[in-house]
Design brief:
single chain, 262 residues, alpha/beta, 7-stranded parallel beta sheet, 11 helices, 14% strand, binds NADP nicotinamide-adenine-dinucleotide phosphate
Length: 262
Amino acid sequence: MSTPFAIVTGASSGIGLELAAICAQEGFDLLVAADRPEIRAAADRLRGLGANVTVVEADLSTINGVDRLWAATAGRPVDALLANAGHGLGRAFLDQDFSDVRHVIDTNVTGTVYLVQTVGRAMRSRGQGRILLTGSIAGFMPGTYQAVYNGTKAFVDSFSFALRAELKDTGVTVTCLMPGATETDFFERADMLDTKVGQGKKDDPADVARVGFDAMMRGDGEVVSGWQNKLQSAIANVTPAGILAEQHRRMAEPGSAKQASD
Ligand SMILES: NC(=O)c1ccc[n+]([C@@H]2O[C@H](COP(=O)([O-])OP(=O)(O)OC[C@H]3O[C@@H](n4cnc5c(N)ncnc54)[C@H](OP(=O)(O)O)[C@@H]3O)[C@@H](O)[C@H]2O)c1
Protein backbone atom coordinates (compact mmCIF):
# COMPACT_ATOMS: atom_id res chain seq x y z
CA MET A 1 0.00 0.00 0.00
CA SER A 2 1.40 3.41 -0.93
CA THR A 3 1.33 6.26 1.57
CA PRO A 4 -1.89 8.26 1.29
CA PHE A 5 -1.58 11.89 0.29
CA ALA A 6 -3.66 14.80 1.58
CA ILE A 7 -3.89 18.50 0.73
CA VAL A 8 -4.81 20.73 3.67
CA THR A 9 -5.44 24.42 3.04
CA GLY A 10 -5.29 27.00 5.80
CA ALA A 11 -2.93 24.68 7.67
CA SER A 12 -0.85 27.40 9.34
CA SER A 13 -3.11 27.78 12.38
CA GLY A 14 -6.40 26.89 14.03
CA ILE A 15 -8.62 24.14 12.68
CA GLY A 16 -6.50 23.58 9.55
CA LEU A 17 -3.29 23.04 11.52
CA GLU A 18 -5.10 20.52 13.71
CA LEU A 19 -6.58 18.77 10.66
CA ALA A 20 -3.11 18.53 9.15
CA ALA A 21 -1.68 17.21 12.44
CA ILE A 22 -4.31 14.46 12.53
CA CYS A 23 -3.57 13.58 8.89
CA ALA A 24 0.13 13.35 9.79
CA GLN A 25 -0.59 11.13 12.80
CA GLU A 26 -2.83 8.92 10.66
CA GLY A 27 -0.04 8.32 8.15
CA PHE A 28 -0.75 10.78 5.34
CA ASP A 29 1.92 12.63 3.39
CA LEU A 30 0.92 16.26 3.23
CA LEU A 31 0.75 19.24 0.92
CA VAL A 32 -0.11 22.22 3.09
CA ALA A 33 -0.86 25.77 2.08
CA ALA A 34 -1.54 29.19 3.55
CA ASP A 35 -0.91 32.76 2.50
CA ARG A 36 1.60 33.89 5.11
CA PRO A 37 5.10 32.60 5.98
CA GLU A 38 3.81 31.03 9.25
CA ILE A 39 2.91 27.99 7.14
CA ARG A 40 6.61 27.06 7.11
CA ALA A 41 6.77 26.76 10.91
CA ALA A 42 3.56 24.75 10.81
CA ALA A 43 5.12 22.42 8.23
CA ASP A 44 8.10 21.86 10.53
CA ARG A 45 5.73 20.91 13.35
CA LEU A 46 3.96 18.47 11.03
CA ARG A 47 7.27 16.95 9.97
CA GLY A 48 7.95 16.41 13.66
CA LEU A 49 4.90 14.14 13.66
CA GLY A 50 6.55 11.97 11.02
CA ALA A 51 4.88 13.20 7.82
CA ASN A 52 6.53 14.07 4.53
CA VAL A 53 5.36 17.65 4.04
CA THR A 54 5.42 19.91 0.99
CA VAL A 55 4.60 23.58 1.57
CA VAL A 56 3.05 26.15 -0.70
CA GLU A 57 2.75 29.77 0.32
CA ALA A 58 -0.05 31.15 -1.82
CA ASP A 59 -3.05 33.42 -1.68
CA LEU A 60 -5.83 30.93 -2.32
CA SER A 61 -8.29 33.71 -3.10
CA THR A 62 -6.61 33.85 -6.53
CA ILE A 63 -6.73 31.48 -9.49
CA ASN A 64 -2.95 31.71 -9.72
CA GLY A 65 -2.56 30.74 -6.06
CA VAL A 66 -4.77 27.67 -6.49
CA ASP A 67 -2.93 26.72 -9.70
CA ARG A 68 0.39 26.89 -7.85
CA LEU A 69 -0.98 24.64 -5.12
CA TRP A 70 -2.23 22.12 -7.68
CA ALA A 71 1.11 22.22 -9.54
CA ALA A 72 2.86 21.30 -6.29
CA THR A 73 1.13 17.90 -6.30
CA ALA A 74 3.40 17.10 -9.30
CA GLY A 75 0.80 14.65 -10.57
CA ARG A 76 0.63 12.62 -7.36
CA PRO A 77 -2.90 11.29 -6.79
CA VAL A 78 -4.67 13.09 -3.97
CA ASP A 79 -6.48 10.81 -1.53
CA ALA A 80 -7.96 13.58 0.61
CA LEU A 81 -8.59 17.27 0.05
CA LEU A 82 -9.28 19.25 3.21
CA ALA A 83 -10.40 22.63 1.85
CA ASN A 84 -10.34 24.63 5.03
CA ALA A 85 -8.75 28.02 4.25
CA GLY A 86 -11.08 30.87 5.01
CA HIS A 87 -11.51 34.00 7.02
CA GLY A 88 -14.14 36.34 8.39
CA LEU A 89 -14.73 40.07 8.44
CA GLY A 90 -16.58 41.76 11.25
CA ARG A 91 -18.24 45.19 11.60
CA ALA A 92 -20.94 46.91 9.58
CA PHE A 93 -20.98 46.02 5.89
CA LEU A 94 -21.18 49.60 4.65
CA ASP A 95 -18.13 50.50 6.72
CA GLN A 96 -15.99 47.65 5.42
CA ASP A 97 -13.29 48.16 2.82
CA PHE A 98 -14.47 46.53 -0.40
CA SER A 99 -11.09 44.93 -1.06
CA ASP A 100 -11.45 43.14 2.30
CA VAL A 101 -15.01 42.10 1.44
CA ARG A 102 -13.85 40.74 -1.86
CA HIS A 103 -10.98 38.83 -0.28
CA VAL A 104 -13.44 37.01 1.98
CA ILE A 105 -15.62 36.02 -0.98
CA ASP A 106 -12.66 35.12 -3.20
CA THR A 107 -11.05 32.97 -0.50
CA ASN A 108 -14.09 31.28 1.02
CA VAL A 109 -16.04 30.84 -2.22
CA THR A 110 -14.13 31.35 -5.48
CA GLY A 111 -10.76 29.88 -4.52
CA THR A 112 -12.41 27.04 -2.61
CA VAL A 113 -14.68 25.94 -5.46
CA TYR A 114 -11.88 26.28 -8.00
CA LEU A 115 -9.65 24.03 -5.89
CA VAL A 116 -12.45 21.53 -5.31
CA GLN A 117 -13.20 21.41 -9.03
CA THR A 118 -9.53 20.94 -9.94
CA VAL A 119 -8.85 18.20 -7.40
CA GLY A 120 -12.35 16.72 -7.69
CA ARG A 121 -11.97 16.06 -11.44
CA ALA A 122 -8.80 14.04 -10.83
CA MET A 123 -10.48 12.13 -7.98
CA ARG A 124 -13.50 11.30 -10.16
CA SER A 125 -11.20 10.02 -12.92
CA ARG A 126 -9.53 7.68 -10.42
CA GLY A 127 -12.86 6.69 -8.91
CA GLN A 128 -11.74 7.50 -5.39
CA GLY A 129 -11.09 10.37 -3.03
CA ARG A 130 -12.34 12.22 0.02
CA ILE A 131 -13.18 15.91 0.16
CA LEU A 132 -13.72 17.76 3.43
CA LEU A 133 -14.97 21.34 3.27
CA THR A 134 -14.91 23.55 6.34
CA GLY A 135 -18.30 25.24 6.27
CA SER A 136 -19.86 26.62 9.41
CA ILE A 137 -23.03 26.75 11.45
CA ALA A 138 -22.77 30.44 10.51
CA GLY A 139 -24.20 29.27 7.18
CA PHE A 140 -27.55 28.66 8.89
CA MET A 141 -28.01 32.24 10.10
CA PRO A 142 -27.83 35.75 8.66
CA GLY A 143 -24.64 37.27 10.06
CA THR A 144 -25.48 40.74 11.24
CA TYR A 145 -22.07 42.48 11.54
CA GLN A 146 -20.50 39.50 9.69
CA ALA A 147 -22.92 39.65 6.77
CA VAL A 148 -20.60 38.66 3.94
CA TYR A 149 -18.81 35.93 5.88
CA ASN A 150 -22.02 34.16 6.89
CA GLY A 151 -23.18 34.39 3.28
CA THR A 152 -20.00 32.67 2.11
CA LYS A 153 -20.48 29.88 4.63
CA ALA A 154 -24.12 29.42 3.58
CA PHE A 155 -22.65 28.95 0.10
CA VAL A 156 -20.03 26.43 1.26
CA ASP A 157 -22.56 24.38 3.26
CA SER A 158 -25.02 24.31 0.35
CA PHE A 159 -22.34 23.63 -2.28
CA SER A 160 -20.97 20.75 -0.26
CA PHE A 161 -24.33 18.94 0.02
CA ALA A 162 -25.05 19.43 -3.69
CA LEU A 163 -21.61 18.22 -4.80
CA ARG A 164 -21.93 15.20 -2.54
CA ALA A 165 -25.19 14.28 -4.28
CA GLU A 166 -23.62 14.77 -7.73
CA LEU A 167 -20.68 12.51 -6.83
CA LYS A 168 -22.80 9.72 -5.38
CA ASP A 169 -21.61 6.37 -6.77
CA THR A 170 -18.33 7.83 -8.13
CA GLY A 171 -16.14 6.71 -5.22
CA VAL A 172 -15.58 10.34 -4.19
CA THR A 173 -17.13 11.46 -0.92
CA VAL A 174 -17.83 15.04 0.14
CA THR A 175 -18.15 15.96 3.80
CA CYS A 176 -19.01 19.34 5.29
CA LEU A 177 -17.53 20.18 8.69
CA MET A 178 -19.66 22.85 10.34
CA PRO A 179 -18.00 24.18 13.48
CA GLY A 180 -19.39 26.74 15.89
CA ALA A 181 -17.22 29.39 17.53
CA THR A 182 -13.75 27.88 17.88
CA GLU A 183 -10.65 29.14 19.71
CA THR A 184 -8.44 30.18 16.79
CA ASP A 185 -7.02 33.36 15.21
CA PHE A 186 -10.33 33.79 13.39
CA PHE A 187 -11.88 36.50 15.59
CA GLU A 188 -8.73 38.58 15.82
CA ARG A 189 -8.26 38.45 12.06
CA ALA A 190 -11.91 39.42 11.52
CA ASP A 191 -11.49 42.39 13.90
CA MET A 192 -14.12 40.97 16.25
CA LEU A 193 -12.29 40.87 19.57
CA ASP A 194 -14.63 43.51 21.02
CA THR A 195 -17.71 41.38 20.34
CA LYS A 196 -19.57 39.00 22.62
CA VAL A 197 -18.79 36.03 20.39
CA GLY A 198 -15.16 37.15 20.10
CA GLN A 199 -14.75 37.11 23.88
CA GLY A 200 -17.03 34.14 24.61
CA LYS A 201 -16.15 30.55 25.41
CA LYS A 202 -15.21 28.58 22.34
CA ASP A 203 -14.48 25.05 21.19
CA ASP A 204 -10.99 23.56 21.06
CA PRO A 205 -9.78 23.43 17.43
CA ALA A 206 -8.19 20.01 18.01
CA ASP A 207 -11.59 18.57 19.02
CA VAL A 208 -13.29 20.22 16.04
CA ALA A 209 -10.67 18.86 13.66
CA ARG A 210 -10.97 15.34 15.04
CA VAL A 211 -14.75 15.38 14.52
CA GLY A 212 -14.26 16.59 10.95
CA PHE A 213 -11.48 14.15 10.08
CA ASP A 214 -13.44 11.15 11.42
CA ALA A 215 -16.56 12.22 9.50
CA MET A 216 -14.48 12.54 6.31
CA MET A 217 -12.96 9.08 6.78
CA ARG A 218 -16.43 7.58 7.33
CA GLY A 219 -17.66 9.41 4.24
CA ASP A 220 -20.43 11.18 6.16
CA GLY A 221 -22.19 14.06 4.44
CA GLU A 222 -22.03 16.56 7.26
CA VAL A 223 -20.97 17.02 10.81
CA VAL A 224 -21.70 19.82 13.26
CA SER A 225 -19.00 19.77 15.95
CA GLY A 226 -20.20 19.91 19.58
CA TRP A 227 -23.65 19.24 21.05
CA GLN A 228 -24.36 22.93 21.76
CA ASN A 229 -23.72 23.76 18.10
CA LYS A 230 -25.90 20.82 17.04
CA LEU A 231 -28.70 22.26 19.18
CA GLN A 232 -28.10 25.79 17.89
CA SER A 233 -28.21 24.69 14.26
CA ALA A 234 -31.34 22.58 14.81
CA ILE A 235 -33.09 25.60 16.36
CA ALA A 236 -31.82 27.87 13.57
CA ASN A 237 -33.48 25.58 11.01
CA VAL A 238 -36.94 26.38 12.43
CA THR A 239 -36.40 30.03 13.43
CA PRO A 240 -37.42 32.94 11.14
CA ALA A 241 -34.44 34.62 9.50
CA GLY A 242 -35.31 38.03 10.97
CA ILE A 243 -35.07 36.66 14.50
CA LEU A 244 -31.78 34.92 13.72
CA ALA A 245 -30.40 38.19 12.33
CA GLU A 246 -31.27 39.98 15.59
CA GLN A 247 -29.72 37.18 17.66
CA HIS A 248 -26.57 37.49 15.58
CA ARG A 249 -26.48 41.25 16.20
CA ARG A 250 -26.27 40.59 19.95
CA MET A 251 -23.28 38.28 19.43
CA ALA A 252 -21.35 40.20 16.79
CA GLU A 253 -22.12 43.90 17.16
CA PRO A 254 -18.94 45.93 17.73
CA GLY A 255 -18.69 46.70 21.46
CA SER A 256 -21.08 43.85 22.43
CA ALA A 257 -18.34 42.24 24.56
CA LYS A 258 -18.48 45.22 26.91
CA GLN A 259 -22.29 45.31 27.02
CA ALA A 260 -22.26 41.59 27.91
CA SER A 261 -19.88 42.15 30.84
CA ASP A 262 -21.63 45.31 32.17
N1 LIG B 1 -12.97 29.83 14.39
C1 LIG B 1 -14.27 29.72 14.23
O1 LIG B 1 -15.07 30.11 15.12
C2 LIG B 1 -14.84 29.05 13.00
C3 LIG B 1 -16.16 28.57 13.03
C4 LIG B 1 -16.68 27.98 11.91
C5 LIG B 1 -15.90 27.82 10.77
N2 LIG B 1 -14.63 28.29 10.75
C6 LIG B 1 -13.85 28.14 9.51
O2 LIG B 1 -12.72 27.36 9.80
C7 LIG B 1 -11.72 27.60 8.81
C8 LIG B 1 -10.38 27.79 9.49
O3 LIG B 1 -10.43 28.96 10.29
P1 LIG B 1 -9.81 29.03 11.75
O4 LIG B 1 -10.91 29.30 12.68
O5 LIG B 1 -8.93 27.88 11.99
O6 LIG B 1 -9.00 30.41 11.65
P2 LIG B 1 -7.44 30.73 11.52
O7 LIG B 1 -6.69 30.19 12.68
O8 LIG B 1 -7.39 32.19 11.23
O9 LIG B 1 -6.98 29.90 10.23
C9 LIG B 1 -7.34 30.30 8.93
C10 LIG B 1 -6.39 29.63 7.96
O10 LIG B 1 -6.81 29.94 6.61
C11 LIG B 1 -5.71 30.52 5.93
N3 LIG B 1 -6.16 31.47 4.93
C12 LIG B 1 -7.09 32.45 5.06
N4 LIG B 1 -7.20 33.14 3.91
C13 LIG B 1 -6.34 32.57 3.04
C14 LIG B 1 -5.99 32.83 1.69
N5 LIG B 1 -6.57 33.81 0.99
N6 LIG B 1 -5.05 32.06 1.10
C15 LIG B 1 -4.45 31.07 1.80
N7 LIG B 1 -4.73 30.77 3.07
C16 LIG B 1 -5.67 31.51 3.68
C17 LIG B 1 -4.89 31.18 7.01
O11 LIG B 1 -3.57 31.37 6.55
P3 LIG B 1 -2.90 32.84 6.44
O12 LIG B 1 -2.87 33.37 7.84
O13 LIG B 1 -1.60 32.57 5.83
O14 LIG B 1 -3.83 33.66 5.57
C18 LIG B 1 -4.97 30.14 8.11
O15 LIG B 1 -4.07 29.10 7.85
C19 LIG B 1 -12.20 28.82 8.02
O16 LIG B 1 -12.75 28.37 6.79
C20 LIG B 1 -13.28 29.40 8.91
O17 LIG B 1 -14.23 30.10 8.15
C21 LIG B 1 -14.07 28.89 11.85
